Amino acid sequence: MGWAFEVRPPDVDESPRTGETPEDLAERLARTKAEEVAAPISESAIVIGSDTVVAVDDRTLGKPESTADARSMLTALSGRTHRVISGLCLVERPSGRSISGAEVTEVVMRSWTEAEIEAYVTSGECFGKAGAYAIQENADRYVTELRGSYDNVVGLPTELLERQCRALGLGWPITGTER
């Protein structure tokens, strides 16, 4: 989008809470991340916090912690429809005004063979990604249908970001001249 930005990774426990829905988890994590990063900032800034999870049936999938975990996630998604949920929170500094929400996209995947799963896991592309795949890289070949925002599946729901910016009166697109 042509924005000048700085990445400040927060130290946040991403564990789901008992009874927490995937939508609530994604939004809570985005809000917690944005608030933690925004807290020490005194100058004019807009902090964007985001988190993405994948949900299949009643199972929430974060980032795989091991190759076995990645295999398990990809096997669970194979031949199934799942939801990609991205939480997004904006915090305006120094006012502290904020807004948060979540975007949901349904993704239909074709069945993967064991060899395809193994090759994908071996490639390393599965790590650091919710649900153990990245649609913007090589996993797009396994997706047969997408219902909702592609950007959401990539991890930054730009449609939701635009709605939140407008709701805070920041305009769209933000060019830097508003600050």
What key phrases describe this protein's structure?
Maf protein, 179 residues, alpha+beta, 30% helix, 5-stranded antiparallel beta sheet
- What do the pLDDT scores average to? 92
Strand content bin: 25-35%
What form results from the Cα inertia axes?
elongated
Strand order of the largest sheet: 2-1-3-4-5
Can you tell me the CATH architecture?
Alpha-Beta Complex
Tally of separate domains: 1
Describe this structure in words.
This protein starts with 21 loop residues before the first helix and ends in a 12-residue tail after the last helix. A 5-stranded antiparallel sheet has the order 2-1-3-4-5. The protein is built from 5 helices and 5 strands, in the order αββαββαβαα. It is 30% helix and 25% strand. α2 packs across α3. It has 179 residues and is of the alpha+beta class. The chain has one domain: Maf protein (Alpha-Beta Complex), CATH 3.90.950.
Give me the secondary-structure topology.
Blueprint: H1 22-38, E1 45-56, E2 59-61, H2 67-77, E3 81-93, E4 98-109, H3 114-123, E5 143-147, H4 150-154, H5 158-167
Antiparallel strand pairs: 1-2, 1-3, 3-4, 4-5
Helix pairs in contact: 2-3
